Automatic annotation (TrEMBL):
Keyword field: Biological rhythms, Signal
Protein name as catalogued: Protein takeout
Signal peptide: 1-21
InterPro entries documented for this protein: Haemolymph_juvenile_hormone-bd, To_sf
Source organism superkingdom: Eukaryota
Organism: Drosophila willistoni (Fruit fly)
GO biological process: circadian rhythm
Cellular component per GO, a single term: extracellular space
Length: 258
């Protein structure tokens, strides 16, 4: 369920890719392999898509210069999900979350609207596999849920749309962007999960609960949507905020003519 971090990180790459191929000034600290895209170019979106595709192989190994961790696999140390409303009462922690399948994505759309400081990315992942240590305590559709162990989740056909909106501000005489809004929307076609060691290792109860979760994945996924969306936004923000704090707007997305 924690796969979406990647999506936003991928988005960042889109943003990070509008850079000079050869740094002109000593102050440009962006990696030299990035293709420059100019914010006032009519081909901005084509350029951004192209540089994204060029970056794709590097992306999977991570780009420390841009605060992007390795993505194949992507490892998230910890994700917490707590909810006390609707049909779900849930307190859960997932540790050492490892996600595979990110490199098999398709980029559906990558758009930059410089006048609004807006960045839009849409991607589809045919198959994502997640494994982690979990700890869950709660109630789902009137049924108690309790467990502590390993969990595996397979997600099929996930399409994720991300939108960032920034605001300009001045720091040390340069223009920077502060991201003031992050929106994440996702759709998926199927979920299959397995939680080991539910109910203190009671196998019969555990299997019944796993069956129940898989049969009802659709309504459960809707129930946890706000929770999952918030978790994703929080995770993504950390990296996005760092990137925009370190690199000025003119470095990330220069103007063609000064
Ligand atoms: C994948 O999901 C999209 C909606 O997000 C849907 O239009 C498409 O038919 C799905 N494809 C498959 C193979 O399930």
């Amino acid at each position: 369920m924690n796969c979406s971090r990647t999506l936003l990180l991928l988005l960042i790459i889109g943003l990070g890719s509008q850079v000079l191929a050869k740094p002109k000034s000593k102050s440009s600290r962006l990696p030299s392999f990035l293709k420059v895209c100019y914010r006032d170019s009519p081909e901005l979106n084509e350029c951004a898509k192209e540089s994204f595709l060029v970056l794709k192989p590097r992306l999977m190994d991570g780009i420390p210069e841009l605060y992007i961790p390795p993505m194949e696999p992507l490892v998230v140390p910890e994700v917490k999900m707590d909810q006390d409303s609707g049909a779900i009462y849930l307190h859960s922690v997932y540790k050492n979350v490892k996600i595979t399948g990110i490199s098999k994505h398709t980029l559906n759309d990558l758009r930059i609207e410089p006048s609004k400081h807006k960045f839009v990315v849409s991607m589809t992942f045919p198959q994502l596999h997640m494994e982690s240590d979990y700890s869950i305590k709660g109630k789902i559709m009137m049924m108690p849920l309790l467990g502590d162990g390993r969990c595996k989740v397979d997600l099929t056909n996930i399409t994720m749309n991300t939108e960032l909106v920034g605001q300009e501000y001045t720091k040390h005489g340069s223009t920077f962007l502060r991201i003031i809004d992050v929106k994440v929307k996702y759709e998926l076609s199927n979920v299959h999960m397995h939680l080991d060691n539910l109910f203190n290792g009671d196998k019969a109860l555990g299997e019944r609960m796993n069956d129940f979760l898989n049969e009802n994945w659709k309504s459960l996924a809707e129930e946890v949507r706000p929770l999952l969306t918030k978790a994703l936004v929080d995770i993504l923000r950390a990296s996005i905020d760092k990137l925009f704090e370190v690199f000025s707007y003119d470095e990330l997305l220069p103007k063609m003519k000064e």
